[in-house]
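User: Quick sanity check before I run a bigger batch. Here is a single chain. Can you write out its predicted 3D structure?
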Amino acid sequence: MIRHRFRTSVVCATLLAFGLGTLQGVASASAPPDTARASGTVAAIEDGAARSLAATLSDSAWRTRVREAALTSDEVGLGDLVGKDPSQAAKGFGSVVADADRELAEAKGLGTKAGPLLQLRLADESMREALRAGAEPLVAAAPADDGATTVTAYDSAGRTHALDAHRLPERPVYVVGVDAERAVTAGMAVLREELTRNRLSTAGPVDSASAASDGFWTSRITSVRLSDDEEPWVKGDAEIFSLVTGFGQDGKVRVDPVDMPYLDEDGRTYYPNQILVNWSYYKYNLADVVMMEEDGSTNYRSLAKALADALLTIIDMGAYVPLVNAVLDAMPDDWWTDDPDYVDSWYTLARSSAGSFRGARGNGTMALEPYWVSAF
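Assistant: Done. Predicted structure follows.
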């Protein structure tokens, strides 16, 4: 799997409160101080929710409900799960989930329209048999640092367990984290809104006459593949998006986000037939592509602001200038603290580009073809 390969510490959010009534005392008394939580990052919010969920599993009825949900679905929305359970444990944990969802949306720059973001999944398919047989699961959140050698997990008594990040544990583990697919969908809307507001994008060509009345040329992805890697078992499937950059019809830098929700495993070739570049938006016959990953910590409003601050200073000098480096340089230094969101990049793609193209970083390969989109 690609998994969440590029996790970073980007934004600050409010500290997650536990609010679990009688269960709170059990968790707090047994667990050591958690200094990471003080930073208020997305990773800290996830970790706090994981610790709280573990404490609720001392309730046998609720534990059974969570187990059944994890066994029947690859990913379980925690908001939906607590909303359907009448137990006291679920009600107490429900307030934690609601607070976490609100704080995650704020931390990721998604506003109030993102919907519930916190979800649970079983760390690996191989754990299903033991979970079904009644093994007591641990609960963990993926560490912020992809280079971490251990994963901190919690049990229902509030004890911590240091698990080997590169050796799959025999005991089942629930992983609590952000619903990346939902986050990317909401994030793309925020990104387009902010890029348009900052004059880096429009709903269509600035000069509508520039697009032929009977259609327009595009570059279409016929296949795409990302390289294999060695990733900790705790990481989940990735959610990929790309930033297509070039000079718009008005001569100003333009950025168009492209969601790639299907691209969630490395070492696998996908055949999406997805339009990557709409050439009617661009002045020159060249554009660049920077592929990024939603890593849980991505703040889309911060990303849009960083792009605007850097790219609005670039002036059209009458010849195409590659923009990949400018996009990467726009990222704040703290986005590169651990492993960055950057997946790969493709320089100076042309409307006539056809065939297989390896990314500059060597991590991705895309096959492109020119594709004419006819008007009705």
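The first helix runs from residue 22 to 30.

User: Great, the batch can go ahead then.
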